[in-house]
Amino acid sequence: MSLLSKTAAELADLLAAGETTSVALTQAYLDRIAEVDTHLHAFLHVDAEGALAQAAASDARRAAGELLSPLDGVPIAVKDVLATSGLPTTCGSKILEGWIPPYDATVVARLKAAGLPILGKTNMDEFAMGSSTEHSAYGPTRNPWDTDRIPGGSGGGSAAAIAASEAPLAIGTDTGGSIRQPGAVTGTVGVKPTYGGISRYGLVAMANSLDQAGPVTRSVLDAALLHEVIGGHDPKDSTSIDQPLPALVAAARQGASGDLTGVRIGVISELRGEGYQPGVEQRFDEAVALLTQAGAEVVEVSCPSFTHALAAYYLIMPSEASSNLARFDAMRYGLRVLPDGVADPSAEEVMRATRDAGFGDEVKRRIILGTYALSSGYYDAYYGQAQKVRTLISRDFEAAFAKADVLVSPTAPTTAFKIGEKLDDPLAMYLNDVATIPANLAGVPGISVPAGLAPEDGLPVGFQVLAPALADDRLYRVGAALEALLEKQWGGSLLSQVPEVTA
């Protein structure tokens, strides 16, 4: 476990020093997956042959002095919502079972171009719809801290893989918090970049105006290194921002000194209080105190429209999702089910039977909600009003960032809940994203950094940092500073405390 518990940056240093090889590293992670994943179920598909071939190619490049990136040879896992040429991409849904894309998503193409061996595809809530990874058509993923509990969602597979040392790096996607919230409940680092900062080409869309891929890692520096590999403009994506990324790795290294002199930090008053677990608030307050000791100026800011963010999100997101999922019509690709007892079924009857069999309950729920919100007579009352709230939220961010360089809050209101605990209460499930959703609605970047363990249950708590659009480097500076200060207290990484996974 000693090798597997190292950060990606440390592994890159070992590769550079000749103390290990990419093949040895990749095999070690594949062995770990074989050892524990039958119980955790973080992966939907493992590509041992492909990963080892990519690792061997990396070792050959290193021997020839032709490295492709600082992370060349470090293995990675990819959320199953990103298209991967030659590997299944199911989005956690039966309707895409067995589908193998003929092309790579831009994020995946950039990982390959940087020389990172891809271990496989991670489990997720179906079409990224959920906060617990219980809505996967292939069964839930378990949290390595307590395997009776959820690892967050929708990207619980990626977060669990990092926490259980099944991979040193992973890719997630964040539509309403699906990188940051799993990060909080598994003790990992999760980053939602500025909307448009990382290409969405090849990312199977749930909600086009909200979806964003990003890093899931063991450390803030690892996230910065991975972000620089996958980020930047992509002409294939019309929402991609045509300007260079900030110096993210440099910002993380600067923050690791623990000095935040001159940085203004705004505590969002609306993202705490009622509904937040006492231990979550306690760890958050302790983290804010550490940032103050590091020289930061802490002020309280109010963002009143944030109280309506959850309601607005659950109108905008299902509306976009219902439109996007209309493509699964049983005619072009994916599952096709013929209705029982119909000799010569029409296209509509085949479509109905296929969607009934292929989509899970949560997907159906959101399609119905979104279609209703977009229907004639209700569009202005629901979808139109939600877009107005979205504008107000963006204005609240602008006003808050006039007073502070970054904003902070707990990442999630509670620690990980037990598997099955909230499946029958969708509204309770949706509330897990109350602190993360505003950033998606406004397109600003956010990071979740481990803040310790809640005293009530000994489970991880996340600390969220938000920055203005295109100022992702601020996340890395503040996040790395907090990480360094906390790890000094803990005597090492929080992930060193993860219990050994047993079946």
Name of the CATH architecture: Alpha-Beta Complex
Annotated CATH homologous superfamily: Amidase signature (AS) domain
How much beta, percentage-wise? 5-15%
Unreliable segments (pLDDT under 50, ≥5 consecutive)? none
Individual helix count: 16
Shape: globular
Description:
- Strand 10 and strand 11 (460-466) form a beta hairpin.
- The chain has a single domain (8-306, 391-492), classed as Amidase signature (AS) domain (Amidase signature (AS) enzymes), CATH 3.90.1300.10.
- The longest helix is centred in the C-terminal third of the chain and has 22 residues, at 380-401.
- The relative contact order is 0.14.
- The chain is globular and about 70 Å long.
- The model has no long low-confidence stretch (mean pLDDT 97).
- The chain is of the alpha/beta class and 503 residues long.
- The protein is built from 16 helices and 11 strands.
- The protein has an 11-stranded mixed sheet, with helices on both faces.
Short characterization:
With 503 residues, the chain is an alpha/beta fold.
Question: How does the SSE layout of this entry go?
Answer:
Elements lengths: L7 H9 L5 H19 L2 E4 L1 H17 L11 E4 L26 H8 L4 E5 L33 H8 L5 E5 L6 H7 L2 E4 L20 E5 L2 H11 L17 H8 L8 E5 L9 H16 L3 E5 L7 H16 L22 H12 L2 H14 L5 H22 L4 E5 L15 H5 L6 H6 L3 E8 L6 E7 L5 H19 L13
Parallel strand pairs: 2-3, 2-4, 7-8, 7-9
Antiparallel strand pairs: 1-3, 4-6, 5-6, 5-10, 9-11, 10-11
Helix pairs in contact: 2-3, 7-8, 7-16, 8-16, 10-12, 10-13
